[in-house]
TrEMBL record:
The keyword RNA-binding does not apply. This is Peptide deformylase. The active site is at E140. Gene3D superfamilies: Peptide deformylase (3.90.45.10). The keyword Hydrolase applies. The lineage of its organism: Bacteria, Pseudomonadati, Campylobacterota, Epsilonproteobacteria, Campylobacterales. CDD domains: Pep_deformylase. It comes from the Bacteria. Removes the formyl group from the N-terminal Met of newly synthesized proteins. Requires at least a dipeptide for an efficient rate of reaction. N-terminal L-methionine is a prerequisite for activity but the enzyme has broad specificity at other positions.
Length: 171
C-alpha cells in the first residue's frame, strides 16, 4: 500500500467530472487500498479518487465511532458509482477538506440521504444515512462532480476564503 499525493485547491484536476468504474478488478482494489492508506495518514474521514488524481467515481468514508472518537477499518465504506435515491431535510455542517487544508466553514447539506452504490466486488448496495455520515457522503460525492465545499459558500465567505488562501500561499 502507498500514501498518495493529495491534490490541493486550486488544482484544475479537482474540477474534473469523474467517470463510472467499469472494472471491479485488482487495479481498483489497489486504488481503494492506497486511498484508505492516504486518508488514514492525513487523518481524513473521507476521500474521493479525484483528490489523488484519479477521475473515477470512487470514494471512501470512515467515520470515527462516537464512544471513543477512533476510526476502525471495519467501519470503512468503499463507495463506487454512487447515485442518490433520496435527499431530505436540511442542515448546516462545519466542513473541512483534505484538498483545502486548514479551512473550515459551515455548509448547507441534506439531513438524510439514501444512496445506491457498488462495493469493491461489484455488489450493489443501498445505504441510508443521517448526521455526519450523510454529510461526509455528500461532501465526497461533490468531489466526483468537480465541486468543492468552498463552492457552496455564500459570496462573502467565499471572498474571505480566497483572501486567506492568497495570504497562506505567500507565506
Amino acid at each position: 500500500m502507498a500514501v498518495l499525493e493529495i491534490l490541493k485547491y486550486p488544482n484544475r484536476t479537482l474540477r474534473k467530472i469523474s467517470k463510472d468504474v467499469q472494472n471491479f478488478d485488482d487495479a481498483l482494489h489497489t486504488l481503494l487500498d492506497n486511498m484508505y492508506e492516504t486518508m488514514h495518514e492525513k487523518q481524513g474521514v473521507g476521500i474521493a479518487a479525484i483528490q489523488v488524481g484519479v477521475d473515477q467515481r470512487v470514494l471512501l468514508i470512515n467515520i470515527p465511532r462516537e464512544e471513543d472518537n477512533q476510526q476502525y477499518k471495519e467501519d470503512l465504506l468503499e463507495i463506487i458509482n454512487p447515485v442518490f435515491l433520496k435527499k431530505e431535510g436540511s442542515t448546516k455542517w462545519n466542513e473541512g477538506c483534505l484538498s483545502v487544508p486548514e479551512f473550515y466553514e459551515e455548509v448547507d447539506r441534506f439531513e438524510e440521504i439514501t444512496l445506491a452504490y457498488y462495493d469493491r466486488f461489484g455488489e450493489k448496495k443501498i445505504l441510508q444515512a443521517t448526521g455526519f455520515l450523510a454529510i461526509a457522503i455528500q461532501h465526497e460525492m461533490d468531489h466526483l462532480n468537480g465541486v468543492l465545499f468552498v463552492d457552496k459558500l455564500p459570496i462573502l465567505k467565499r471572498k474571505k476564503f480566497e483572501k486567506e488562501l492568497k495570504k497562506a500561499q505567500k507565506q
